[in-house]
Each structure stands twice: as structure tokens, then as C-alpha cells.
Amino acid sequence: PFENFPDPMRLSLALLCALVAPTSLLACDTNDHSYSFDLLVMQWPPAFNKNINHLTLHGLWPSRAQSDNYPCDCTNEQFDMSKLSDLESRLDQNWPSLFNKDSQSFWAHEWTKHGTCSHDIPALDGEYNYFKTALDLRDAYDFSEALTQKGITPGGSYDPKEMVQIAQSAMNAQMVLGCDNKNQIQTMSLCLDKTLQPMDCPSSILGGSYADCKMDQKVYWAAPSSYAQEEATVATA
To answer: Annotated catalytic, 230?
Structure first.
């Protein structure tokens, strides 16, 4: 597409395209299946205009401590919903798609991209184990519940460092917070070693898109009711 430009300009345009290309396109590594820890990412649905009053899962992702790359699509195993029949109600409640109505496609994506790379951990080996263990981990590390018990409740602005300290004291786990450009909490996540015990997140995670809240400013933790009222107003307008 740059063939009609002079050589120096073609080079500049090519470099510009490389610089602005989304890094996520470069992060997925289908050749090297190695990884050093798992990242459990939980979403706060009201931050995505969803009237759900609890943390839901985005995924459990094999990750690397010294690299922005991560293993993905490690086998050709296809998603089979029939294997998860006795987990379906838990999946619907705690692992719904927040962006479309087809949660099964979301689950299929998480399995083929990330779950197929988790076979070396017995508790995650196979489709059923992967989803059941991820759901169990979400229940075990429900940071929103721990914060609420200490009076940090949705609908207010808080010191994020205090929130992290509360989570650490309650669950002996390092909570990392992901925010939008207004410093509104979107995700609460944690890093797990390969025995699925909490660990301090490495530098490859800290400061990334799932740990990017401005920690020197207050964060806003949205309440579901505000979105429900806005949606009702729009519906009747």
C-alpha cells in the first residue's frame, strides 16, 4: 500500500504502523507453550454497564514472568459444552459474557486460547477441570466480598492502596486493579503460582492493562444501581 511513496516515506509509514499496532496482536505465542504462572482475571460488571452485583470471571491465563508474550492455542482440542453440563449454572452466574449474549462462544474462546495450555497443572488438566477450578478460584478470592465486609462498598471513591491492603489482609493474596481512563475499577485480578497458590505479580503484569489503575489517585468503584437507573431512563425516554 506504500509503493507509491518515496523510499524514506515508505519506511516511516511502516515504522509508524508497527508502533501503533496493538501489542495484543503480538502477545499470543502458539509455538512456545511454556509459562511460569497463571493470571486470574475477574471483572466488575457495572464498569461495563451490566447490572450484576458480583465479580465475574474473564479468564484464567497461563502467563510469563519475563515476557509480554503468553502461550495460547496449545492444542487442537475443541470446546464441548456437554462436558460442562453440571457446571452450566455456575458458569452462567459467575462467568457470563459481558459483551454479547452468547456466553458459550466466550467460554469456547477461553478454553481454546488459554485452557488448552494448562494441561501440566493437574487441577486444570482437561476442559472440565479447567472451568471448575477457575470457578472455585473465583469463589475463593472474591475480593469484592472481602472489601464490602470492611465497609468498602460499590458506589464510592476510595484509596486503591487501602483496598489492596484490605484484600491482602483478608485473603493473603495480592489484588491488582485494572481501571479505565477515568480510574474506574474494571477488573480485580491476582497471580497464582503453578500450585495455584497466590503469589506477587511480576513486572510483566504490573502496569499492564489489568493492573493499570493510578494508585496515587482515588479509584471509583461503580454501583450496579446507577446503571440500572440510567438504562431505565433511556428505555422510557
So the answer is: no
